[in-house]
Specification:
- There is one protein chain.
- The protein is built from 9 helices and 15 strands.
- By secondary structure, the chain is of the alpha/beta class.
- The strands form 3 sheets. Strands 3, 5, 6, 7, 14 and 15 form a 6-stranded mixed β-sheet that branches. A 6-stranded parallel β-sheet has the order 10-9-8-11-12-13, with helices on both faces. Strands 2-1-4 form a 3-stranded antiparallel β-sheet, with no helix packed on it.
- Helix 9 links the parallel strand 14 and strand 15.
- Pfam families: ADH_N, ADH_zinc_N_2.
- Homotetramer.
- Keywords: Cytoplasm, NADP, RNA-binding.
């Protein structure tokens, strides 16, 4: 008799309505892996992109499939060859099918003191993405980075990492999020008509990141002067304009270690926009796709 658990699943690609909460066999940790009792799972745009069937080379999907990559919880199984972690440890990291009561992680780190499971679950993918695109765009301390669509999870992380590294950030977001961007150390302005001139008045731009995919690649190239100083994670047409589209993940263990360091030093904090139950995963995806998020959305198990 196999042990059973609750798990969010989809048997066909499509909209949020394809998500179903099912009874499934519990997974087990293989070599180099750990299993956690999931306390919270991060909600990321990649989750609904995979559910829709978008072709994402880093995440090939076989149906039926679970949902979710990020999670925080308590270690309850340690795979062969794994050292430095024990049953009962509180960890956060990346795995597969994390919208579930139990999940297997392939990369993890111990949770810093004082961090809740909900907060921790929101960090893995966005920190890996934020660190990767800052590296790829080549911005250096003392320079100015423009972030288009700066108030979401990745943008919030980019702003705080940049501030810690001595990089000035100009961030664009909706009118309701201007004070939020300023609280993270950014020079803030709204998008919409005239935004390029508003950015110019705030200062020279050395590099730029497109996090929202709102059709601004040409303007970002204009502001930086060359397409090589622009990176997008949201506009699949960016390469047509000579701009790098960044979609292949770097080192998750390194990202988790840096996240833990920044959090422990009080240099990184990610607000939780909204929490959802496992059964509310479809609503979480609808809200994530709508954008305008301030910080993170998480599933609480």
């Amino acid at each position: 008799m196999f042990d059973r658990m609750k798990k969010m699943n989809f048997a066909e690609f499509g909209g949020p309505d394809v998500l179903q909460l099912i009874d499934a066999e519990e997974p087990h940790a293989g070599p180099g892996q750990i299993r956690i009792a999931v306390r919270a799972a991060g909600v990321n745009p990649v989750d609904w992109r995979i559910r829709e069937g978008q072709v994402l080379g880093a995440h090939p999907t076989e149906l039926p499939s679970g949902v979710g990559l990020d999670a925080a919880g308590v270690v309850d199984e340690v795979g062969e060859g794994v050292e430095g972690v024990e049953v009962g440890d509180r960890v956060f990291g990346e795995g597969s099918s994390t919208y579930a009561e139990f999940a297997v992680l392939s990369a993890w780190a111990r949770m810093p003191e004082g961090l809740s499971f909900e907060e921790a679950a929101g960090y893995p993918s966005l920190m890996e993405t934020a660190l990767r695109i800052i590296r790829e765009v080549g911005v250096q301390p003392g320079q100015t980075l423009l972030v288009s669509g700066a108030s979401g999870g990745v943008g919030s992380a980019v702003l705080q990492i940049a501030r810690d590294r001595g990089i000035t950030v100009i961030g664009t977001a909706g009118a309701a999020n201007q004070d939020y961007l300023r609280s993270l150390g950014a020079l803030a302005t709204t998008y919409g008509e005239g935004w390029v001139e508003r950015v110019r008045r705030l200062g020279r731009v050395d590099a730029a990141l497109d996090l929202a995919g709102s059709g601004v690649i040409r303007e970002l190239v204009e502001l930086t002067g060359v397409p090589q100083k622009v990176v997008s994670i949201a506009d699949l047409g960016a390469p047509d304009l000579g701009v790098r589209f960044s979609g292949v993940a770097g080192s998750m263990p390194d990202a988790l270690a840096e996240a833990a360091d920044l959090i422990s030093r009080g240099k990184l904090h990610m607000p939780i926009e909204k929490s959802y139950s496992l059964a509310e995963a479809a609503a979480a995806h609808i809200d994530s796709q709508a954008g305008h998020t301030r910080g993170r959305r998480v599933i609480v198990v």
